[in-house]
Amino acid sequence: MYLSDIHTHSIASGHGTTCTISDMAKAASQKGLKLLGITDHGPATLAAGTSSYFRSLIYSPRKRFDVELLYGIELNILDTDGKTDLPQELLDKLDYAIASMHYQNFRPKTREENTAAFLNVMKNPVVKILGHIDNPQYDIDYDAVVKAAGENGVLLEINEASLAPYGYRGDTHANCAQILSCCRKYLVPIVLSSDSHGTEHIGDFTYAADFVHDAMFPEGLILNNQIPKLKMLLSIR
Known about the structure:
This protein is an alpha/beta fold. The chain is built from 9 helices and 9 strands. The longest helix has 14 residues, at 173-186.
């Protein structure tokens, strides 16, 4: 059993759930998690959290139902320069950021342009995780991105919602295999992420865990149970 899930969404993401942060924490506690990251979508996502939401988020309780909480954001990458959708002064107050490509805000481009967007967004020290870079809509130079992630202290995720039958990104298995191969090559740690919108899939890594174990990926590079190390790598302070 894994003890942390640091890519989850509450009602503030604007779609997929009506669950509050308290609902999320209670579900995490019931599933035996010790650390939960709330990473609602950035303002460029339709109906998602506003700047005011993220400004207030940092004042929320740090522990609920005996689960430690981290407050982050899933940023939308907006262009090949790595521009994102929350002002830096607010980003600096959050615990960490996941940077992701979503079709509504970043249409698929050439391999070079998609890769450049990820390389550039990692220059922001608040960005600590790249989200679902397995998406087959986006052609990416995984070797270059994972190498840069290691150099910038950025983690890669293996996304449960990408690999599960209920996922909508298509067949991501080949891309996930490439990500793991590059992470093994450059010794870049990963996290398993549920990407749960609401409580249903919090802490559920059924398909992601099977995938990394079938690939014989080193357990020491999976940080979900290494909570002190995970928190240290996520910290920008």
